[in-house]
Amino acid sequence: MAQIVKLSHYVSRYEIDIYRYPSRYVRLKRERWNRLKQEWNAKQTGFPDAAVPQDGRIHRDSRLQRTVKRLFRRKTASDDIPYPDFGHVHSRSLEDVKAVFQEELFHFQIGWASSTVSEVSRVKQAYYQDEMLRRLVKNLPDTFFIFYEPVCFMKKAPVELDIVIVSPSDIWVIKPLAGDGDTIYTKSSERYWEKRGKERTETFLSPMYDLNRMRTVIEHLLEEEGISLPVYQAVVAKDSFLDVSSHSTRTKLIDKRTIDSFMQKLINNQAPIKHTQLKIADALLCNVQTVSESRIEADLETIEKRDD
């Protein structure tokens, strides 16, 4: 699962130390999944209170071990990924367990992308149901960094970006287009596109302008940091059709017919996290807007509202 390094203008754990948190997340996620899978295997063998170590042998938990496990499951505001409380999920298939685990991690990723131990930002609930965000996070590798709708500064001027994905080997700037299975996007001129639906047709500014603006921001940062990395562009209408031709090798036009192959191409990039990738993410984080408030003040406000 990819890492949400920056979400909108929210405060992010990764802003504290981008060189530590990505590898920490990968390690903790792997540990939690391995432990959950071991418990599921133990449940299937008829030893629900057993822990399955790496050697595959089953041992009964001592009272102390069970106490530690209960403490381990408590959700806190710390940097650790909380151990999910799945209830009766162990009675389901391993695929079901994995799906629940991924959903927990998706929510956890939004938590990391909107809070630190001392600061917190107010998250729009729409992000939890955002299908584009969910698809990217749940399908891309752990080593991919996602900047989702950040506000970046270029020469002190704020620039709203759509989606920036920093992988170990390249950078993608993505312009998503909303629609359904009846929506067809066409190009009416160099400056404008059309969105044709069942009942109406809309004309809007070509998404290439947004893509070019995003690429300019990214390439400016790369130049300032003295980093050379390819920057690719994509218009993504994951639920609709694009009846537009592209003559640029840098720009991909992705619709519902090609979204799976496009995602698979990204997924196939299984390279580990690179220092250059971290440096780029750090440069971006140093140039984005952050709006947050004290966690203590936010908690007190929540308590006051509940008491009222």
From TrEMBL:
Domain NERD: 136-236
A Pfam family that the UniProt record links to this protein: NERD
Name this protein carries in UniProt: Nuclease-related domain-containing protein
Gene source species: Salisediminibacterium halotolerans
